[in-house]
Amino acid sequence: MNYLFRFRSMKHILDPGYDELQGRRIFLEDSRKLNDPMEGLLNVRWKGRQAEWLNFFKHYFESLYKAVELIAITDGQHKLHSEDIVLCKNEFWDDDFINQERAQEFDASWLAFADFTSLYECTSMLERTRRSLNKNLVLQILEKFLLPALKFCPKIPLNDSLQYSRDQNKDFVENILHINIDLNKRQKEAYDASSSDGHFNDFLNTYYADHFSWNHNERFLLCNFSNIFMDKIVNLCVPVNYTASFSECFDEPLLWSHYADSNRGVCLIYNVRKDYNDRYYMLPEDLEGLDPCYLEKVSYNHKLESLDFFSMLGLLNGATIENRWRKYNNVKTAINIHYGFNKEAYREKVLQAIRQKMKNWQYEKEYRIIKNELDDNIQQSFKLIKDELFGVIFGIRASSFEKVKVSNMVKYMEKRSSRSKIKLYQAIYSERNGKIRAYEIMSNEEFIC
Fold it and tell me: In what helix (H) or strand (E) does residue 400 lie, and over which residues does it extend?
């Protein structure tokens, strides 16, 4: 038999809202909310041709333009929030609603912005740079274009001091927007030092602190807009992933500390099957609606493998590209330059990023069930067939009261269905090797301390 182990708190076992033991349910968590701070942190990088970079900046400018125009048409009454940063068509920017004159106004603003910021020269530099750019460095570059971009957006009732500061500090603005730096040197600095995403915001707060108090929209545009735009544009290429984690071992003390409520919880023992390729899988109860759930083996590396933004963009399906990524000079750059949509290739790239962790986590010997928006039938929980659960190991610090409740629950499960016996174990610390071992519990009397 093949066994995998899943560490849970008592809440997941006894709370009717979870019911993972009696209900035989497996819940998948949003990978961005797991306890490892590196979990869900995808190493997305940018390395593209000039046309791709120009298209990227055009999306940034267009998204900002839409947000600013929303302020303008409401005479400053609308308070911007993250939902106002759009990467796709909406009723405000729909071709049926916007007339030709307004479209020409936007095109003229974009061209003036590109000319004023020497954007063509900058994107040519970005194309020539030998190393890819990480998200933080791309964000720094976008922030340097923010103030001049606002200059070419529709007129809005911004604070007079802000307008004055922009105009009176032309030399300062030009210095940061022209990117007159050695990009490769800056990249090396970005690799060697972990700079904060908020460095530019801190500068703005300091620089303008004595001039005025920002209103909500000014603070949103200057402090939040670029960050939110970058998050949304990365999420465009990488779907949200949901995972359920298992381990090949139960004897590692840190697993109990991290995932079983500091030894107060349990470890569920599951029977798992192997296919002809030696891949583990589990069987949901409703096989008509769900495929077998395969478990992906986590790889542990000294550094995270990267995903190239423009390549991933080229792997999106046609409908997504059509609705959420516009053409530049009538060329769908990502599709034409890269190799077009292939669902399996795209899914494999995403899985490769999701099933990796840093080397110092390798003691976990982890396997994951991974579901994401690419799956045809995505569900965040599923019910296993009755014989998948082999046993339950109680943590060293699990209370006697909760252990009796779980034991009675197991007896009820065995009584109501014709299934093999679920074994109960107690975890103890082994002084011989510093690991966790378990002995089988034969009766409820053994729970009484």
Answer: helix 400-416
* pTM score of the predicted model: 0.70
Contacts of 102 (CB under 8 A, 6+ apart): none
Contacts 24+ apart (CB under 8 A), 195-203: 195/136, 195/140, 197/136, 197/139, 197/227, 199/140, 200/140, 200/143, 200/144, 200/226
Domain membership of residue 188 (yes or no) is yes
Same domain, 292 and 189: no
- Give the tokens for residue 254: 């840190």
Q: Which of 220, 237, 254 is the last residue in one of the domains?
A: 237
> Helix or strand or coil: residue 117?
coil
How far apart are alpha carbons 434 and 26 in whole angstroms?
A: 30
Count of structural domains, the chain: 2
Distance CA 136, CA 36 (A): 20
Query: 150-168 in b/e burial notation, b at 16+ Cβ within 10 A?
Result: bebbbebebbeebeebbee
Q: Do 51 and 31 lie in a common domain? A: no
Residues 118 and 31 in one domain: no
Residue 440 three-state SS: strand
Cβ(134)–Cβ(230) under 8 Å?
no
**Domain membership of residue 388 as a residue range:** 2-39+241-298+355-447
Block mean pLDDT (10 aa), the chain, length 449: 92 85 84 62 82 87 88 84 74 48 80 85 82 85 84 65 40 40 43 40 48 72 90 79 90 93 94 88 69 86 81 68 55 46 69 82 90 68 80 94 91 77 92 92 60
Helices 135-151 and 50-73, interaxial angle, to 10°? 50
The answer to whether the CB of 148 falls within 8 A of the CB of 173 is yes
Question: By three-state DSSP, how is residue 255 classified?
Answer: helix
Give whole-number Cα distances, 157 to 160, 217, 242, in Å: 8, 10, 43
Q: Which of 187, 221, 237 is the last residue of a domain?
A: 237
Within-domain flag for 325: no
* Residue tagged 């022209």 (tokens): 178
φ, ψ at 404 (rounded to 5°)? -65, -40
Give residue 280's identity as a one-letter amino acid code.
Y
